[in-house]
Design goal:
133 residues
Amino acid sequence: GGVGGAVRALEPLVASGDFEAARSLLRQPLFASFLGYSPGVRGNVGSLKPATALAKASTGTAALGELLLDLKRIDDFCLSNRVIVFNAEGLEQVNRLMAAPSQRPEERFDLEEVRGFLEDAREHVQEALAALK
């Protein structure tokens, strides 16, 4: 459960191309407050800081730092690949595209990369949990 469950919940959203839903999941309290994931921050490692309470409860924060970076990569991927729709006409076109049988999410987006990020995130969750006192 907890963070591991939340990271797993990201996977189907990303796999189905629902990047907006994935991004709003990353803004839930579990990521935002508990882990200290603040997506406003540019993806540089130095500025991604685990939540103080969590850092204090850990023997080491390396895995937590890595996890935050994984989340940032997933977030950035979702941001750059989301479909931005400006009007009803655009929405209709997008829906037609989405409904076209040849347009499966894995063909529209290169999900290989983001799958790697999700896998990293899963591993780092395990390591971070192991580091909790």
